[in-house]
Amino acid sequence: MTDPEELVRLQGYGEMTLRTAVTTLMLLAPRERTDAAIFRVRDDVRLASSEIAELASEWGIMPAPEVRSPKLAPEQHWTHVVRGMVREAPLSALMVAFMIGVVAARR
Q: What does the pLDDT profile of the chain (107 residues) look like in tens digits?
């Protein structure tokens, strides 16, 4: 059984406890996660990725989901964005926005 309070070094982040290193590693994007490494301070041995994944599941630490690039998302048109904002806005906010528009138009 591995001690979660064991001191390790997460490449690029410095020394921390094993649990903190595994949590930090699991929060990274999948590509960055494969490039990162955890080394034990006591003997400078690198933990295998399978061991890290096993510890994460044992401690209930879930990996961060893969996030799509904004460039891959379909482009929204301004009319759809504004309609969505108006649908979700409270009536008082819409009235204030209308009044500001009236005052600005009169100038």
A: 578 889 999 998 899 999 999 999 988 877 788 888 999 999 999 999 899 989 999 999 888 776 555 555 556 666 776 777 777 778 777 788 888 888 888 87
- Alpha carbon distance 17, 62 (integer Å): 18
- Alpha helices by DSSP H, 28-88: 30-35, 49-58, 78-88
> What is the value of pTM for the model shown?
0.59
Which residue is listed with tokens 């204030």?
A: 96
- Crossing angle of helices 49-58 and 18-27, in 10° steps, is 100
Measured distance CA(16)–CA(2) in Å, rounded: 15
The closest of 9, 13, 16, 56 to 32, measured between CA atoms, is 13
Distance CA 38, CA 22 (A): 8
